[in-house]
Amino acid sequence: MIPKEILREIRRIQITTSRMVTDVFAGQYQSVFKGKGMEFYEVREYSPGDEIRSIDWNVTARTGNLFVKKFVEERELTVMFLLDMSASAYFGTIEQLKMQLAAKLCSLLAFSAIKNNDRVGFIAFTDRIEKFIPPRKGVSHVLRVIREALYFKPQGTGTDINVALEYLNRLTTRKTVTFIISDFISPNFKKMLAVANKRHDIVAVTITDPKELEFSDIGLVKLFDAEKKRDFILDTSDKKLRQEYARKNQLRIKERETLFRSLGVDSIDVRTDVPYSQSLLKFFRSRERRMR
Questions:
Q1: Structural domain harbouring 171
Q2: Which residue, of 73, 94, 129, is where some domain finishes?
Q3: 42 and 140: one domain?
Q4: Comparing 131-140, 153-162, 167-176, which segment has the lowest mean pLDDT?
Q5: Dihedral over Cα of 80, 145, 24, 182: its sign
Q6: For residue 230, pLDDT beyond 80
Q7: CATH code: domain of residue 241
Q8: DSSP letters for 203-255
Q9: Which of 91, 157, 218, 280 gives the lowest tally of CB atoms within 10 Å of its CB?
């Protein structure tokens, strides 16, 4: 039985994001994702003026006549959400947990997708695949995705993006629009991300809490590492410690941004202390400009 507070939260998210989709995001979504790909439709005999690169050499060899492949513009897409549900996702110091924000992002993007008649699928992962919901259409299906994002209790605590990407590639050979929602603190996933980005339209969505970037001077603090399951004491009054912590995090962010750029992976940076609608609109407008 799902707790009443979770049901109320799902309803709140549905109302809020549905309104945002109707007012703004459905058109933005369609402008950057709809009709940008081509899918195979049929083969037909070659006609003068057809491009040589469209010739189907296998059919031509079998029949002895020139045949070309005909493609049509994709009208319906499959949108996949790869949601990192490792222990670090259940952290937040500004009004909400990172996981709650992730659920709102999934909701907004999923409602935008089904409004454009696309299918939505969901993969929850930690250091293993935790949950898979096959792609489907409809409001009730999106509500199920939101429910799992909020309520599902994973078994693992660590993060392995390779596991999620390998599962995605095994799942489908057709191109999808895939949003990976994570902090991307995961070992050696560059190669697998490059492979997945050639098959799919990958968008990396990073969610960050301000305290993950720098500490305030509040003296001795007892913290719990949820992924490694251990307590430790941190002396935040140590200026050098605070500076080193901030330096390492800035370096990690720069390395992540460099990785995404080098692979041609689009990215959206979302923070728990900034309205997520601003980050999404910035992404949509930037991508639309590039596609003109």
A1: 4-34+75-291
A2: 73
A3: no
A4: 167-176
A5: negative
A6: no
A7: 3.40.50.410
A8: EEEEEE-GGGT-----SEEEEEETTTTEEEEEETT-HHHHHHHHHHHHHHHHH
A9: 218
